Amino acid sequence: MRQDDFRTAEIDTSRPHPARIYDYLLGGKDNYEVDQRAGDQLASAAPEVRIGVQANRAFLQRAIRYVVSSGVRQILDVGTGLPTAPNVHETAQQVAPDVRVAYVDNDPIVKAHGDALLSRSGATSIVLADLRDPRAIIDHPDVRRVIDFDEPVALLLVAILHFITDAEKPEQAVATLRDALPAGSFLVLSHATGDFADRSEAQAVYNNATATLNLRTRIEVERFFDGFELVEPGLAQVPFWRPDATPPARSDEIGFYGGVARKTG
């Protein structure tokens, strides 16, 4: 679905939205009462969830610094969510000021916030599009304005794939994006899992949301990296991926896998 196919009428504030629930759990203010109730239910079902989203955010920042330090100067962030400081471009540009970032999300509210935040930055763009239609992302003029697919790209799919059902073919979507990337590109990915605890109650919180929560096992998450080579330490719980500080308490319960991988051919 292209940006022009979205309409303001599609903004649904009567049901919780994953991006706004995530914002609430991070302590943000860009959410509604319906999202707050869902976030509180989620925290009740999975007490470590607030630690988990913070650890996932910290993983994202470490991964960005890693790929930019490895020479990448352009980032495609799909499923960006609501702005949380420091943003992807802010983190990346602290390492290299010439990094360009294209943000993509399917929530019109995210797009509105992005327009306000990025209006003065020529090195960034914000696109309203859906991971379920990866070709529309690749071909979007506002993505192409920022991203040169002839040069290495860091593709960020952070806490997004678990909101896509198997029937919606997430592996195919990742493969389409992967095939558009040249050698030397990176995939940064995190994904919710039930491997470390029974999370059926937490999963049920999303049954009334705008997207369901689809937990996957380690083996299932690893399949998203087909065509890439994982860098050390491979796929790990997010607090344990190249930590730069002591992991928080209860880190072994955090239900997020994270990994970074390089495309070599």
Structural write-up:
The protein is of the alpha/beta class and 265 residues long. It contains ten helices and eight strands. It has helices at 18-25, 33-45, 49-69, 88-95, 108-118, 134-139, 141-144, 170-179, 200-205, 218-222, and strands at residues 74-78, 100-105, 124-128, 154-158, 186-192, 229-230, 236-237, 256-262. Strands 1, 2, 3, 4, 5, 6, 7 and 8 form an eight-stranded mixed sheet that branches. Helix 5 links the parallel strand 2 and strand 3. Helix 1 (18-25) packs across helix 2 and helix 3 packs parallel to helix 4 (88-95). The two termini are 29 Å apart. The model is unreliable at 1-9 (pLDDT under 50).
Write the layout of secondary structure elements.
Blueprint: H1 18-25, H2 33-45, H3 49-69, E1 74-78, H4 88-95, E2 100-105, H5 108-118, E3 124-128, H6 134-139, H7 141-144, E4 154-158, H8 170-179, E5 186-192, H9 200-205, H10 218-222, E6 229-230, E7 236-237, E8 256-262
Parallel strand pairs: 1-2, 1-4, 2-3, 4-5
Antiparallel strand pairs: 5-8, 6-8, 7-8
Helix pairs in contact: 1-2, 3-4
